[in-house]
Specification:
Elements lengths: L1 E2 L4 E11 L9 E2 L10 E3 L24 E3 L10 H4 L5 E4 L6 H15 L38 E2 L3 H11 L3 E7 L17 H25 L2
Parallel strand pairs: 2-8
Antiparallel strand pairs: 1-2, 2-7, 3-8, 4-6, 5-6
Helix pairs in contact: 2-3
Organism: Eleusine coracana subsp. coracana
Pfam families: PNP_UDP_1 (PF01048)
Protein name: Nucleoside phosphorylase domain-containing protein
Length: about 220
């Protein structure tokens, strides 16, 4: 939670997978929009039910529910090798959402917050992060401007954004990328390999961004 003097908001940070081939491991992103598309783990081509899922050992994923193998739906091919689908397999993950409780909390927060000015969301502050040194980046060490509409992929931001929206609280997430888009071998492009780099870069950007909020209030931005 961040208090700027005029209002309160949420700044969330962490790591993310990468769906943009223009971005590199260690790049930090600030998404403009979020979407919750269910929670699932998409396996690499060639992996099957016997292979451990990425981050499964840490308890983030389970193979208990919802296995979908795209090759099972290939039409007109009897040779298993020819019918193999590069989309491979998806493991869906269980979720629990308490919407009645969220609606009740949102109504209560609206009564408390009233028409208070929300000072957290100022798009122009993103420009202040350009040139920020990120020594842990793989191919470059400074921040750049807007790159693409392709999103980072992770598990928490949309859920936190939903709660923040219900409560009428401004929200922003900072996500640093832990892998490359487009796959790659399990040795060179495994999320767990670069967790520390991505996590540190997300923290560095967050520590730079939060003071900008207070400075913006003082300047009347």
């Amino acid at each position: 939670m961040v208090m700027t003097g005029l209002s309160m908001g949420i700044v969330h940070w962490g790591i993310a997978g990468n769906a943009n081939e223009d971005l590199q491991i260690g790049d930090a992103t600030i998404p403009e929009h979020w979407a919750h598309l269910s929670l699932w783990n998409w396996q690499r081509y060639g992996d099957g039910p016997e292979n451990e899922l990425p981050l499964e050992a840490a308890g983030d994923y389970t193979r208990k529910f919802g296995f979908l193998n795209f090759s099972d739906y290939t039409v007109g091919k009897t040779n298993p090798e020819l019918s193999a689908n590069t989309l491979n397999s998806i493991w869906y993950q269980p979720e629990e959402i308490d919407l009645p409780r969220l609606r009740h909390a949102g109504a209560a927060a609206a009564r408390v917050l009233g028409a208070r000015e929300q000072a957290l969301l100022r798009p122009q502050l993103a420009g202040e992060l350009e040139g920020l040194e990120l020594p842990a980046c793989v191919n470059a060490t400074s921040s750049s401007g807007p790159t693409s509409d392709a999103p980072p992929v992770e598990m928490e931001s949309a859920a936190i954004a939903l709660v923040a929206h219900q409560l009428g609280v401004p929200f922003l997430t900072i996500r640093s990328l832990s892998d490359l888009a487009g796959g790659g071998s399990s040795l060179s492009n495994e999320a767990a390999t670069f967790l520390s780099i991505a996590a540190q870069n997300a923290v560095d950007v967050m520590l730079k961004f939060v003071p900008l909020l207070g400075n913006a209030d003082k300047a009347g931005m």
